[in-house]
Amino acid sequence: MELEHVTPEEIERRSFEIITEELENSGVDISSFDERELNVVKRCIHTTADFDYINTMHFSKGAVDEMAGLISDGAVIVTDTNMALAGINKKELLRYGCEARCFMADPETAKEAARLKTTRASVSIRHAMKIEKPVIFVIGNAPTALITLREYYDRGEYEPAFIVGVPVGFVNVVQAKELILKTGIPCIINTGRKGGSNVAAAIVNAVLYSMREK
Question: pTM value?
Answer without folding.
Answer: 0.95
